[in-house]
Design goal:
It is an enzyme of class 2 (transferase). This protein is 14% helix and 35% strand. The strands form 2 sheets. It has a 4-stranded mixed beta sheet with strand order 1-5-4-3. A two-stranded antiparallel sheet has the order 2-6. Helix 2 links the parallel strand 3 and strand 4. The longest helix is centred in the middle third of the chain and has 9 residues.
């Protein structure tokens, strides 16, 4: 949606959409420390990943913030952050959680 990069969510419920449970029903939660740098906000419902990749490669910004909190449908209700240099993100902790 926002091009090639490391996708991060500030809400575990957003990240949960992309995870599969292990045998005992627990889902992984990866706690990541990220250095965002210069953030470009994107409020568009439809995006152009090729154009976003081009801007990211030119270092117009370091991170894209996809703010979908005001949209209805299409993965709405969340903000996600995409960093385009993998050195901007470091996994610090792996947790396992089960739904109630």
């Amino acid at each position: 949606m926002y091009g090639k990069g490391v996708y991060l969510a500030e809400a575990s419920t957003k990240a949960h959409m992309y995870c599969a449970a292990r045998g005992d029903g627990a889902f992984p939660i990866l706690l990541v420390r990220a250095t965002l740098g210069l953030v470009k906000d994107n409020l568009d419902e439809k995006t152009n990943p090729a154009a976003i990749n081009s801007e990211a490669e030119k270092k117009v910004f370091d991170t894209m913030c996809g703010d979908r909190r005001k949209h209805k449908f299409n993965f709405s209700g969340y903000r996600e952050f995409v960093v385009y240099d993998p050195d901007q993100a470091v996994a610090e902790l792996l947790l396992w959680a089960k739904k109630k």
